[in-house]
From TrEMBL:
Annotated Gene3D superfamilies: Ribonuclease H-like superfamily/Ribonuclease H
Name of the protein: DDE-1 domain-containing protein
Listed InterPro entries: DDE_SF_endonuclease_dom, RNaseH_sf
Domain DDE-1: 8-136
Domain of life: Eukaryota
Source organism of the structure: Tegillarca granosa
Pfam families hit by this protein: DDE_1 (PF03184)
Length: 190
């Protein structure tokens, strides 16, 4: 399944645990994947697995010679020599967003994670009201419904426009967002 321009990849979940149980993905949307880690957080191995298996299945490539630009944050699990070598071999240009700028440059931070969280919370409250004895196994169905709602093609295109990434517009983000902060100065005289 290839996505249209402005479409989103199916979600990929990281659950806390020792071994992946298929019931964790019950009720998920088509193409959803997942894995587990001891902490429940991503790490370098999980990120590499995501890029090797999940990511290439759903990215749209018009031409094999045309590189793909991958924008992402500089989380330590996203930085490794192996990742750079992988990207080179797959004709992918990696662009790590500068630290502390994702709130103005990362399209998903700009306009999608907020609506996703709001919709997910609403879905959770509705589920608890309808079935007070529900288990954690319905996380995927609730999150997938929220994900599809928040990451619609129109919403994604709007986020890329707002960040100035596509269409390219360097004036889309006010330069004030990149100025160093001013430390508090003491007005006390000694």
């Amino acid at each position: 399944m290839r996505q249209k321009q402005g479409g989103c990849l199916p979600p990929y979940f990281v659950f806390k645990g020792q071994g992946m149980r298929q019931e964790l993905l019950d009720g998920c949307s088509e193409g959803t994947g997942g894995t587990v880690s001891e902490s429940g957080w991503s790490n370098s191995d999980i990120f590499q697995h995501y890029l090797d298996i999940h990511f290439p299945t759903y990215i749209q490539k018009r031409d094999e010679n045309q590189p793909i630009l991958l924008l992402y944050d500089g989380h330590r699990s996203h930085l490794s020599i192996g990742l750079i070598n992988w990207a080179k071999s797959h004709n992918i240009i990696l662009f790590v967003l500068p630290a502390h700028t994702s709130h103005v440059l990362q399209p998903l931070d700009l306009g999608r994670f907020g609506p996703f969280q709001k919709k997910y919370n609403s879905e959770c409250h509705k589920s608890i009201r309808q079935n007070p004895s529900s288990t954690t196994y319905n996380i995927c169905s609730l999150a997938c419904r929220s994900y599809i709602h928040a990451l619609s093609p129109a919403n994604l295109q709007s986020s890329f426009r707002k960040s100035g990434i596509y269409p390219y517009n360097p004036s889309a983000v006010d330069e004030i967002n990149f100025k160093p902060s001013v430390a508090f100065k003491s007005s006390c005289q000694r």
